[in-house]
Amino acid sequence: MLKDSIFHFLLYTSRFYFVSLPTVMGILYIVPTPVGNMEDMTFRAVRILKEVDLVLAEDTRTSGILLKHYDIHNQLMSHHKFNEHGTSAGIVSRLQAGENVALISDAGTPGISDPGFFLVREAVRAGIEVQCLPGATAFVPALVSSGLPCDRFAFEGFLPQKKGRQTKLESLKEEQRTMIFYESPYRLVKTLQQFAEFYGGDRQVSVCREISKVHEESVRGSLTEVIAHFTEKEPKGEIVIILAGKNE
Length: 248
Hints:
Layout: H1 2-20, E1 27-30, H2 43-51, E2 54-57, H3 60-69, E3 76-78, H4 84-96, E4 101-104, H5 117-125, E5 129-132, H6 139-144, E6 153-158, H7 165-171, E7 178-183, H8 188-199, E8 204-209, E9 217-222, H9 223-232, E10 239-243
Helix pairs in contact: 4-5, 8-9
């Protein structure tokens, strides 16, 4: 009888104990990855990718190469702009259940012209801690090395390809801050020509390509000069355009 009483007491208290424990939610880590040189990966980024319960990747094939290079053996899950609205709710649930999750893109910092914003917003709304690690992003070295003012700048990313492009270009006519654009090498000359049309051929520009790679190059000068350069020499690789703002 005494044994039965003790057993029931322990059973009752253990149930109470487990029910009363608060659920500790996981952390969503935003992890930058190299934009070119593999040596640009940070020690902390490697550690986080090894320790988390799940790694979300824009392209699992591309990220698989990166993880293999750093001897990271972890679960990869595809998370990109075409499925993020469908997968984010499940990821948030896993974070709420205590799992730690890392988000990476093919190159650079997620959320900067790459998937990331939607998941971060949903995590923040759910009260989940979000930590973004410092690290690689293409526009910072392009801006700093451009020779143009970098104390104030406007990041515009990719311009609309069709609808809204002319309106966007027109809206930037009075912009006095240095402007940053991402562009495909196949559209570079056309974009520079449109800049010259809207802002004048004498506007200063720096075109940086293949950042942190073997063939990194910055071409600086007026829009007219840089257009002539890339008309003669076909551009290749990832492109960042740094365009001077309007003179005050």
